[in-house]
Design goal:
single chain; mainly alpha; 10 helices; elongated; disordered N terminus
Amino acid sequence: METKIKTAPGLSNSTLKVIAMISMLIDHIAAAVMVRLFLAGQYRQYIPVYTAMRSIGRIAFVIYCFMLVEGMKYTRNKWKYLARLGIFALVSEIPFDLAFQSQILELGYQNVFFTLFFGLLSIILIEEVENKWGVWFPDMPPVAAETLLRLSVLGIAAMGMGFAYLFRTDYSWMGVVCILVFYFTRSRKWLQLVLGYLAFGMILWEWEALPAFLLLALYRGKKGFSCKALFYGFYPIHLILLYLTCVILQIAQYSAL
């Protein structure tokens, strides 16, 4: 007689990422396409729809921050993971600028992959320091070693936030803070969700991100299907498509005159 192994119901890693992609698409349709229509004096009666779409979009960044921390648990090479984020940050910058600024390159505001990059860089450096501190300073008194270690961790966190601020990334230094909140509370799921929501609400003022945390509460650590090309490629590709949509709409407007 076969014994069936019961698994706890819940959302997988891949399911959460798909939800984040859909949320981000809805948000960016509003931010890239609808904004241009409003500026052209059209469809202003749909501003409540625009507001609702932007609120739905608050789900995406929460999930991506959470999954970034989760990814550190399972990645075989954290530096390769970081390099992959950096490459896609660079690849996505022109599509990002075209979609939101109609410019090939605009350095006043960088895409969210840069924020994730600096958040992950901070986490990697913190782990490197924590793992090697005893090797570097074997004879240091415990109290002094612990104090200096904590100060070093704070310094690394401040560095990551500083880079995000100086590079003017999407969500800026505040996004890095939210990533680090998820990281430092990763061993206690409910504390991670509660403090994470407070961080997003009090720092980014995104209290409407609550649905994202309810979804994360349903996450059970399952991987789901694997498709890195989809999860990474979706960001620059959907931005290019949104820009092309805006161009087509503009051509249609001029043709109608």
